[in-house]
Amino acid sequence: MESLVHLQPEKDEHKSFKIRPITTEEEMQRFAIEPMAKEGWRPGLKDAECFLACDLTAAFVGELNGKPIATVRISKYGDSFAFIGAYLVDKEYRGKGYGLKIFNAAVSSICLASAFLSRLLRAAGTLGYVAVNREGSIVGYISARPTFLKEEGYLIGPLFANSKAIAQRLLKALFEKLLHQEKAAPLVCMDASTKQGMELGEELQGKKVFDFVYMVTKDIPNTCLEKQFGVANTDLG
User: What region holds the N-acetyltransferase domain (predicted)?
Assistant: First the structure.
């Protein structure tokens, strides 16, 4: 059974929350390694030194009124793949959006496409849900944003999920939110970029508006296409 978490818009009090790179071993030790050890994650003795040796732009600390309360590290494998770790927020500040802000800062440091997604999720009017399993792992997420022309309603995407059932739950939760707004959305569109995305749309009585062709110059990107049901943008994913 998965639970859905509503992504809240940015709050005014977050303006005093500042994110900056971690640039020294002492800071890496204090802000990332020690909190990881307290959580029982068993970091290595020289991890701080090794992390900084790999990439001086790979770790961030979030400070609220000057107090460090969050950290994240991102290991970049070129411009197309990265791994996030040491992702922690002090317990008393969890559930308040600080984790999402520092996560977005890390993701936006990778490349243009990631910066697009990061900005998209923070944009005014954007709605979103995350599906989380019993172990606390993310198994799906969805967002919707207003179209440029207000009368056209909302664009849904990205929609990624570990299964069609999870994707369907996310879509239904989002539809409920859109329909029960003060002014219900007149039209909802989703770029279904895969076969399973098309099937999901048909099962929910969606209507195909047009086709598009996706072309690559080399091999098809090695991504989890079976988990992709909709994209935020046909150019940037």
Answer: 17-181
List, in order, residues 6 or more apart from 223 with CB less than 8 Å away: none
**Cα atoms in the 13 Å half-sphere on the side-chain side of 132:** 11
CATH number of the 17-116 domain:
3.40.630.30
Torsion sign across C-alpha atoms 2, 8, 10, 13: negative
SS in 3 state form for 17-30?
EEEEECCCHHHHHH
Tokens of 60: 């961030």
On the 0-12 / 13-18 / 19+ scale of CB atoms within 10 A, 88 is buried
- Mean of pLDDT over the chain: 77
Residue 40: both structure tokens together:
């029982």
197: Cβ–Cβ under 8 A, 6 or more apart, which residues?
Answer: 159, 190, 228, 229, 230
Q: Which two tokens stand for residue 118?
A: 């990061």
Give the C-alpha distances (Å, rounded to integers) separating 179 from 12, 168, 186: 27, 16, 9
pLDDT tens digits, 86-104: 889 999 999 888 998 998 8
Look up residue 23 and give its amino acid.
T
- Kindly state which CATH superfamily the domain 125-230 is placed in: Gcn5-related N-acetyltransferase (GNAT) (3.40.630.30)
Length of the chain as a residue count: 237
Give me 204's structure tokens: 């929910």
Contact between residue 71 and residue 32 where contact means Cβ atoms under 8 Å apart = yes
